Amino acid sequence: MMFENEWFEKYKIGVALIDADHLNLFKEVERFNQHLQSGMSTEELGKSLSFLDKYVGAHFAREEILMREKGYPDYTQHKSLHLHLKKVVFAVRRVFETDIEKVDKVKLNQFLHDWLVEHILRVDTELVPYVNGPYGSKNSYANERLQFEPLNEEVTLDEEMVEITVKVPKSKQKVIERCAFALMQNTPEAQDLEEIALAATGMTIEEALELAGAVLY
């Protein structure tokens, strides 16, 4: 328990709910590692994946609201990382539900530790100056970046563009055109559209196997 308290004090960002989320993830990673050492059952693995599935939805949403409220200038990049982690967690659970034996528990354990180190200890702690430090108030520069800055202009310019043809109700034509524009320009809204599509249509097993490759046999 002393180790948990030391970890919490060292890496908390000053927002009780988000700090509690981080501590819960830390405890889950520790539990996962302990089960792995003692022989993890399929049921225990399923519980951990269920926890992660719920965690990435609720916790990331809380963080993104906080970043918008504080005018965090790297919001779009941070949200992009959230979306990637969500996809990986969804993919691992999809593979687990289809073929349990494909999930490498040791590799998944390493992924969780890397996530703890890279995302919480390096990325999330960058929020501290904006939450309870010198940059805590909103500023026009940050707000402009949140509204107009592309997520990653270099990727947008280098990525191969494809043309698709779809039939939609005439009343939805403008909606589809605006969605297509957001995706083409890789605006912050493009990530929201991708998340909506992922939630609405799920993920094919082929997509899941590709995304979860780092934690598969």
Short description:
This protein is an all-alpha fold. It has helices spanning 2-11, 16-38, 42-69, 75-98, 105-123, 128-132, 140-148, 153-158, 173-185, 188-201, 205-211.
Plain-language structure description:
The chain is mainly α and 217 residues long. It contains 11 helices and no strands. The radius of gyration is 19 Å and the shape is flat. About 9% of the residues have low confidence.
The assigned CATH architecture is: Up-down Bundle
User: Which class of secondary structure composition applies to the elements?
Assistant: mainly alpha
- What is the CATH fold-level name? Four Helix Bundle (Hemerythrin (Met), subunit A)
User: SSE string, helix = H, strand = E?
Assistant: HHHHHHHHHHH
Number of strands: 0
Counting structural domains, the number is: 1
Largest sheet: none
Shape: flat
Question: Are there runs of 5+ residues with pLDDT below 50, and where?
Answer: 139-157
- What's the CATH superfamily, by name? Hemerythrin-like
Distance between the termini: 34 Å
- The overall pLDDT, averaged over residues, is 80
- Rg is 19 Å
The total of helices stands at 11
CATH class: Mainly Alpha
**Percent helix among the residues?**
over 70%
Report strand %: under 5%
